[in-house]
Amino acid sequence: MISYKTKLNHLNDRTKGYTQALTDHKIAADKTLIKKVSLNHDATEITAAVKSLLSTPSVDAILFASNRIALHALKYIQQTGIKIPDQVELIGFDESEVFDFFQPQLSYVKQPMHQLGQTATELLMDIITQNKKEQLVFVPSELIKRGSTSSASGRTSSQPSPKERE
Asked: Keyword annotations for this protein (predicted)?
């Protein structure tokens, strides 16, 4: 996974969700495989993070915590000639039309933006008008599988994984 070094809750929650998903599936969360890049030098740091992850034999997929990270990573990966999803599978976070121009198209975690905006407005109005306290709300997301993940490209679990094909 590649995310930002930040105090922004939504990005840190994505990293927590990633590690929790690994734990839920009885996979040890290796902190060395969670790369954090700075906002100031993100292009060069993203490239370095991708290189590091791709050089790790156990890595067969990368999750990007933001569209900006995904964009820089995809540019680098396309230059290397690495075959997606055969050699590495990729998943972004949030939908963006820019990813329609990459082949194969990027799989991503879709957030219900309309529902998020409506819920945030309702909570804010409750805080203002009724003096209510802030509250934590979870809104479900959805994985949109496209060509950058093997299940979207037709590989089934009985077929070899990307690393087994090497």
From this structure: DNA-binding, Transcription, Transcription regulation
